[in-house]
Amino acid sequence: xxxxxxxxxxxxxxxxxxxxxxxxxxxxxDSASVFGAILDERRGGFFAIETEPGCRIKQNYIRNxxxxxxxxxxxxxxFAILDFMPRYKESDSLYNCPPEVIxxxxxxxxxxxxRVRYNPRLGYGEHETHxxxxxxxxxSTVSNGSYESIYLYTNMAFDDVLESRDVAxxxxxxFVVSYHQKILPPNIExxxxxxxxxxxxxxxxxxxxxxxxxxxxxxxxxxxVLKMLAFQESGAILAAVTTSLPETLGEERNWDxxxxxxxxxxxxxxxxxxxxxxxxxRNFFDYLMRVVPYKDDKVRIMYGIRGRKELPEQTLDWLxxxxxxxxxxxxxxxxxxxxxxxxxxxxxxxxxxIETFRSDVSxxxxxxxxxxxxxxxxxxxxxxxxxxIWEFRGSTAHFVFSKVMCWVAMDRGIKIAEQLQCAxxxxxxxxxRAEIKADVMANGWNAEMGAFTQSYGSCCxxxxxxxxxxxxxxxxMDPKYVATVELTSRELCRDGLMYRYRNQDDFGLPKSSFTVxxxxxxxxxxxxxxxxxxxxxxxxLLTYCNHVGLLSEDLDFETKxxxxxxxxxxxxxxxxxxxxxxxxGNFQDESKLVDxxxxxERVEV
Length: 605
Fold this sequence. Notes:
Elements: E1 3-7, E2 12-16, E3 21-25, E4 33-35, E5 46-51, E6 56-61, E7 68-74, E8 77-84, E9 88-89, E10 95-96, E11 100-110, E12 113-119, E13 129-133, E14 138-142, E15 149-154, H1 158-162, E16 166-168, E17 173-178, H2 188-207, H3 216-228, E18 260-261, H4 265-274, H5 278-291, E19 302-303, E20 314-315, E21 329-330, H6 341-356, H7 361-381, H8 400-419, H9 423-443, E22 445-446, E23 451-452, H10 479-492, E24 493-494, E25 497-498, E26 512-514, H11 515-527, H12 531-542, E27 554-556, E28 562-563, H13 569-582, H14 590-598
Antiparallel strand pairs: 1-2, 2-3, 3-4, 5-12, 6-7, 7-8, 8-11, 9-10, 11-17, 12-16, 13-14, 14-15, 15-17, 18-19, 20-21, 22-23, 24-25, 26-27, 27-28
Helix pairs in contact: 3-13, 4-5, 4-6, 4-13, 6-7, 6-8, 7-8, 8-9, 11-12, 11-13, 12-13
């Protein structure tokens, strides 16, 4: 999956190594696609710049930015495409991040030739899209169905674009693919200004990331990905910018990930605050508090990027899928599942927020109401089966990790109550916490196997149990946890990559590695004192990033091909989290730095 991604916290686009844009949704991340060739090369739509045969192509990010440079070197000459989505600050509170993509072409030497193949297919390519000239732009609209339109602005001759004529590059050229008709038509000077402003924005943003002694480039690229996935209008952080990229080629594990999973919340807060990006973390937490119900209403495992609860799933049967992997889905039916682990994640996030950020009384009172509501739900539901962290669709079970996270929910509820000096509550909650732990230790531990298993009475291992020590349920040096890590490594690790589990699920036996689980193993090995093994595994994982340093949801065990939705925020979060652990001691003055940052006026740009 050799794509680069560009974005502006409004939407994002994928560009392959040949400089073809083959995924773009406008105006927002979760809108219908304008270019969708990743899901169907014939019907999906794309925006390509084709050059002479034998042309050498190199692609990289401009260092410490989310601007992609693709350089073409041929016999007739060379040129570069600079792809970006504009983002910069126009005032203290106003960002410019329009729903548009800019392709800025600079000749480098000689007289290179290329032809444009501009082929938008709006509305996921369901109906034909027609492109035609207007006075200042090329407009594209669909022939049937819901009305869709898009505008292309360029200083090339419109006929050269529409007829894919071969042209010589003798001056700078721009293309602006805009969802809106522009009141102020672009020109090359404005394009240059947008480029420089966007470049400075990303350079300034990444400069505020705490310095690492090691793994600097990987951490910075991961941080830039996470910022790009943060939706400007709400603070939600998406799981990925794509839908239906398969976990395994040719199978049907194809899901829409353009939503915000609650499960990622505590890691997002922990990682972003540890690397210095407090405003992104605060905005995300504010989003969480807007979508999480105050009293009794069911907590969803995921929400839309604006907080929508209902995410009905449907298939786009007219699309062939990535490399023929059908079906293509939009929406996600897992949003209605009962997954008891999310209560622990939410209360851990609230606890972290209270510890990290200063808040007024009304905010604390709101958080206390949510805390009591979540704890009450856990009291009533912790001993019931659920669908588990992996969102099994066919059956429920008493998953060990779900029980552990219910313990986390009670534990963090107690800590919050202690901080707020509400003793009337936490003494009773301590009894529930102890009851959950005793239940897990009695029923989650398989003495014959010598490990905690996936569910009560099961003989299957689960990589999620590697997080038991991370969340404080068990001491990392407890013999039972150490034994679980060691057996999980032997049974679920294959050639340095981890399965989530190896047992049959709703779609058969898993065949690919879930990237985040490999990072979990790195941290688990580190926590039990296997530092050399953890370093070795982490460094090897970094080699599986693609040519521009990005990771997807899954990896093929044999070929190491990136699979699943892309780029995967959880994978990049876990990468940073591992780097933090392996660079232990690098932040010895971190507490002082955090206090300093919290007590000065910081403007997010």
